[in-house]
Specification:
The chain is α/β, with parallel strands linked by helices. The protein has a single domain, classed as Rossmann fold (3-Layer(aba) Sandwich), CATH 3.40.50. 59% of the residues lie in helices and 13% in strands. The chain has helices at 14-25, 32-41, 45-56, 62-74, 91-104, 118-128, 135-149, 151-158, 171-183; strands at residues 3-8, 29-31, 82-85, 110-115, 162-166. Strands 2-3-1-4-5 form a five-stranded parallel beta sheet, sandwiched between helices. Helix 4 (62-74) packs parallel to helix 5 (91-104). The longest helix is centred in the last third of the chain and has 15 residues, at 135-149. The radius of gyration is 16 Å and the shape is globular. The structure holds adenosine-5'-diphosphate (ADP). The site of adenosine-5'-diphosphate (ADP) has 17 residues, from helix 2 and helix 3.
Length: 184
């Protein structure tokens, strides 16, 4: 498997695992959160539009994300594989991705869902100390996750792509399981 979506709540550890696995497989790690943070830091037009949403822990409007993903998946290095981390984050983004992959003649091989209890997520996010990791923003991000992103678990189950992984374990245990999964 070389075309994977990583699904999970904020703090579920998908970014860390995506980085490890993408390096291992030699494929791009495409993190919409990182792309947005970089755009905000360098104050590009995208960053300027996205800043308020990211600071509040809200999703940025789809129109800011969809073109960006379309361009990125069309790039040469994305033909042999990718890990999408942080996209899709709602059903309309997932529907968009279905059409986009069809257009690009690409197939997603699996969706890894990182399962972590809310109490553990909260603890992790509070100790991470990223700029958007203050208490008010965190609780909004978890709320937005349950409301908009969690329905994708059922969505991908129905598409027969869902693979559940227990994310409440040691980093290395999770990495090992992911390596086994992608080899299968
Ligand atoms: P986390 O996994 O901790 O929520 P991310 O780095 O994935 O962190 O995302 C940080 C922020 O970037 C989100 O809270 C949201 O504002 C914005 N964002 C990232 N990806 C998307 C997306 N696909 N759609 C809308 N907003 C997004």
């Amino acid at each position: 498997m070389t075309k994977l979506i990583f699904l999970g709540a904020p703090g579920a550890g998908k970014g860390t695992q995506a980085q490890i696995l993408s390096q291992h497989l030699g494929i791009p790690h495409i993190s919409t959160g990182e792309i947005l943070r970089e755009a905000i830091t360098t104050q590009t037009p995208l960053g300027i539009k996205a800043k308020g949403f990211v600071d509040n822990g809200d999703l940025v409007p789809d129109e800011l994300i969809l073109d960006l993903i379309q361009e990125r998946l069309g790039e040469k290095d994305a033909q042999k594989g990718w890990i999408l981390d942080g996209f899709p984050r709602n059903v309309s983004q997932a529907d968009f991705l279905v059409n986009l992959l069809q257009e690009l003649n690409q197939v997603c091989n699996g969706v890894i869902n990182f399962d972590v209890p809310d109490s553990v997520l909260l603890e992790r996010l509070l100790s991470r100390g990223r700029k958007d990791d203050n208490e008010a923003t965190i609780s909004n991000r978890l709320f937005v996750y349950h409301q908009q992103t969690a329905p994708l678990i059922e969505y991908y189950k129905q598409h027969q792509l869902l693979i559940n992984v227990n994310g409440d374990r040691e980093l290395s245990q999770i990495s090992e399981e992911l390596e086994t999964i992608v080899k299968s």
